[in-house]
Amino acid sequence: MSLAGRGVLVTRAREQADAFVSAIEDAGGHAIVAPVIARSFDVDPGPVRAAFTAPIDAVVLTSTNAVEAVSRLVSAVAAPVFCVGPKTAAAIDGAVFTGEVVVPDAEFRAESVVAALAERWPSGGARIVVPRGAHGRELLLDALTELGFEVDAPEVYTIGPRRWSDAERADAERAEIVTFLSGRTIEAFLAAFDGAQGYLAERTVAVIGPVAAEAAARLEVRVDVVPEEATVEGLVAALQRL
Q1: What is the pLDDT of residues 33-63, one digit of tens each?
Q2: Cα separation of 94 and 84, whole Å?
């Protein structure tokens, strides 16, 4: 089975969309790229460098954005690195991150990283640095704090909404399927143009995993597809079964 020429809207930031676009087109679909978010690494480097200068027991990287941001601001990280998902780990530059890399194998979610840290330090007490984007998930930080870890979470990048051009809006009309890879992207999409909810109501809506699905529910966006594996490959495989 394939996507058989169906238009699939990709709302991810353009510089990160290549792998997703390739997976869609390899499955026979037509990827329509119209990003609704834009990322920036223009942040105050002081708090970031201070966080990595103090003694660290472990670093948690939740996305490839976090990997790239830290690599831009910090020359070397020797502490163990716990990653959410193998793609985050694959983005790591070994010249910067020289310590152990740990990828817990449970559902590609931050919760599995929390469990792995709790197993490594059952009594808490370790100092954990969690570089993140502005408005990142507080649940991860709260969970680590509740377990007795000392958590430092410097903001290393920002993501903001991006409005479509008239040409992108026209292209988007050809999509039968709309995809979202994060809750933040759903929020940005709803701000991208008037009538966004009506547009979604007429199309199949697919999200990458349960965290994005929970965000969609809060935003009153109907979701039709949530893959078992929270990866772009898992999402495309789920779309092929439609």
Answers
A1: 999 998 899 999 999 999 999 999 999 999 8
A2: 17
Walk me through the domains of the chain, giving residue ranges and CATH numbers.
7-36+162-240 (3.40.50.10090), 44-157 (3.40.50.10090)
What per-residue string of b and e applies to 9-19 under the rule 16 or more CB within 10 Å gives b? bbbbbeebbee
d(CA 16, CA 230): 16
Residue type, 138: E
DSSP characters for 30-82? EEEE---EEEE----HHHHHHHHHS--SEEEE-SHHHHHHHHHH-S-B-S-EE
| pTM for this entry | 0.76
HSE at residue 59, side-chain half, CA atoms within 13 A, is: 31
Q: Distance (Å, rounded) from C-alpha 89 to C-alpha 103?
A: 7
Q: Is residue 7 within a helix (H) or strand (E), and if so which, with residue range?
A: strand 7-10
Length of the chain: 242
3-state secondary structure of 189: helix
What distances in angstroms separate CA 223 from CA 56, 102, 123, 207, 227, one per listed residue? 40, 32, 39, 7, 11
Q: What are phi and psi of 159, to 5 degrees?
A: -130, 125
Which position has the token pair 């948690």?
A: 60
Closest CA to 186 of 202, 199, 169, 173: 199
Whether 135 has a pLDDT exceeding 90, the answer reads: no
